[in-house]
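Students often ask why inverse folding is considered easier than folding. One informal answer: many sequences map to the same fold, so there is more than one right answer. In these notes we will look at a single instance of the problem. The structure comes first.
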């Protein structure tokens, strides 16, 4: 978010008053004076006006590129959590992780303070499409592809999976779109057709795509259109 917008939102001052403060040298960013109204404030930046820290009220929404080896949980005794990757300035006590990934899965994770938004994204009634990229142990047979596309009964379930979108990218590589989020769903679907997932990466949730500029472990705020476009 632009610095002038951030200051206006965080203080209730008009943009023109904010600009006056900026010109007067009343604003600091990470303790250094700043006058550039268009500077983009990043998550974790400390913005102060006349020495007073300005915080935005309202909900927070982030996308994070999850590396392997991190758990999607608020706390864990054994492994680091995805929340450990956030800057210390972010209050993690009321964060929710929307659509969890396994320890070894990489890719897009959404984190928010907005419980209603999380519910809309993850509730089975909203059927939000999740897109994954998979490496397989064995080539995908035509009949396995057909079964995935038609829907199949997973072990321990009473209803078949909804039809999946399958795009074959290579002999042992595919893109899979599913609109459900059952426990270990992708790995179980591939196991049910006699294959094995070697690596799994989430590329997108609904209209939100993992930003290609984010390296594993990095994150950024969602844009307003990403937040409203789910
Ligand atoms: N399906 C899985 O099996 N694992 C994930 O992490 C996500 C979807």
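Output (designed amino acids):
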């Amino acid at each position: 978010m632009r610095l002038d917008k951030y200051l206006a939102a965080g203080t209730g001052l008009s943009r023109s008053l904010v600009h006056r403060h900026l010109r007067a040298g009343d604003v600091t960013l990470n303790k250094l004076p700043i006058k550039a109204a268009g500077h983009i404030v990043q998550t974790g930046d400390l913005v102060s006006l006349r020495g007073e820290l300005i915080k935005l009220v309202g909900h927070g929404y982030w996308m994070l590129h999850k590396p392997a080896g991190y758990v999607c949980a608020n706390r864990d005794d054994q492994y680091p959590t995805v929340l450990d990757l956030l800057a210390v300035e972010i209050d993690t006590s009321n964060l929710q992780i929307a659509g969890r990934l396994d320890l070894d899965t990489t890719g897009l994770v959404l984190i928010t303070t907005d419980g209603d938004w999380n519910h809309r994204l993850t509730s089975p009634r909203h059927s939000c499409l999740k897109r994954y990229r998979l490496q397989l142990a064995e080539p995908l047979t035509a009949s396995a592809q057909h079964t995935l596309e038609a829907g199949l009964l997973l072990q321990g379930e009473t209803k078949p999976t909804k039809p999946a979108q399958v795009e074959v990218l290579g002999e042992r590589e595919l893109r899979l779109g599913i609109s459900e989020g059952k426990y270990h769903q992708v790995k179980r679907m591939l196991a049910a057709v006699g294959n094995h997932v070697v690596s799994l990466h989430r590329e997108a949730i609904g209209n939100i795509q993992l930003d290609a500029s984010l390296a594993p472990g990095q994150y950024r705020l969602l844009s307003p259109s990403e937040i409203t476009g789910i």
